[in-house]
Recover the amino acids of this structure.
C-alpha cells in the first residue's frame, strides 16, 4: 500500500544488480559443431583458416576429390567463416554448423553502457531516478530550504481563504 509505479522502477534494477553481484555469474559462449565439404586442392588453406578461429578438428575424410572436415569452434569466431570460405574455395565449399554446447567465455568482462544512472552505484541511481540531487543527503545543505516570497504569499492567502470559509 502506498507504493507507486516509480518505486518499482527503482527497486527492480537494484534487486537485479544485487542478485547478480552476490551470485558471481560467469559468461558462457556457444560452441558450434561444423561440417565443411571442400575441394581437395583447398584443404590446406581452409585448415589454416580454421586454426585462426580456435577450432578443434575432430575428423577429416576424403572422397571423390572432396574433403569433409568436422570439428567445433566458438560461434563468435565463426560468424564470418562462410564468407571467408567462399573466397578461398571460389564458392565451391559447403559449410554447415549447429550449436552443440556452451563453455566459459575467454572474455569474462562484461562491458555495459547504461542510459541514465548506473544501478551499481545505488545512492546516485535512486536519487537520480527520483529527480533529486545529492545535496538532499547532505544534512548541512538540506537543513533549511529557501521558500520563495511568492510561494509564501500564496500559502498565506490560501490559509486566510480557508479560515474565512470555515466560519
Amino acid at each position: 500500500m502506498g507504493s507507486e509505479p516509480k518505486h518499482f522502477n527503482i527497486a527492480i534494477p537494484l534487486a537485479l544488480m544485487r542478485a547478480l553481484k552476490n551470485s558471481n555469474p560467469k559468461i558462457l559462449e556457444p560452441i558450434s559443431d561444423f561440417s565443411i565439404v571442400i575441394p581437395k586442392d583447398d584443404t590446406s588453406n581452409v585448415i589454416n583458416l580454421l586454426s585462426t578461429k580456435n577450432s578443434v578438428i575432430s575428423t577429416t575424410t576424403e572422397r571423390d576429390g572432396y574433403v569433409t572436415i568436422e570439428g567445433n569452434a566458438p560461434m563468435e569466431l565463426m560468424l564470418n567463416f562462410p564468407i571467408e570460405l567462399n573466397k578461398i574455395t571460389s564458392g565451391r565449399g559447403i559449410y554447415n554448423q549447429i550449436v552443440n554446447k556452451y563453455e566459459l567465455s575467454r572474455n569474462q568482462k562484461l562491458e555495459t553502457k547504461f542510459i541514465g544512472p548506473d544501478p551499481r552505484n545505488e545512492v546516485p541511481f535512486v536519487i537520480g531516478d527520483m529527480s533529486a540531487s545529492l545535496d538532499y543527503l547532505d544534512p548541512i545543505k538540506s537543513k533549511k530550504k529557501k521558500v520563495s516570497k511568492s510561494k509564501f504569499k500564496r500559502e498565506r492567502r490560501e490559509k486566510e481563504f480557508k479560515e474565512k470559509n470555515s466560519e
